[in-house]
Specification:
The protein is α+β, with helices and mostly antiparallel strands. The protein has a single domain (about 15-95), classed as Arc Repressor Mutant, subunit A. It is about 45% helix and about 20% strand. Strand 4 (about 65-70) and strand 5 (about 75-80) form a beta hairpin. The protein is globular. This is Winged helix-turn-helix domain-containing protein.
Amino acid sequence: MCRWSFHMGNSSKRLTKEQMENNVLKLAEKRNGSLTAVELAMDTDLSLEEAKAKLDDWANKGFVTIKVSESGAIIYFFNGIISSEERKMAKGVSELGFDD
């Protein structure tokens, strides 16, 4: 069973699943759209196993993409978090040929 709590200064507060997910997404945003299980465990009260299981679950559901760094670290990229530069460069659906 996962413990869903998030560090809040010196104390920790029980959060709902939705609040925890929102905090994880904000944490990923601060890290340019990616996290490792170690980073998630460090910034929450989740164990390393729980953090990895949550990220793997999101990967299985298509919310994150798994990549491996040159050093072998597993990095989870959150598909919906994009940079402001990427937003500016985005093309309209009609430009991509999807409006047939």
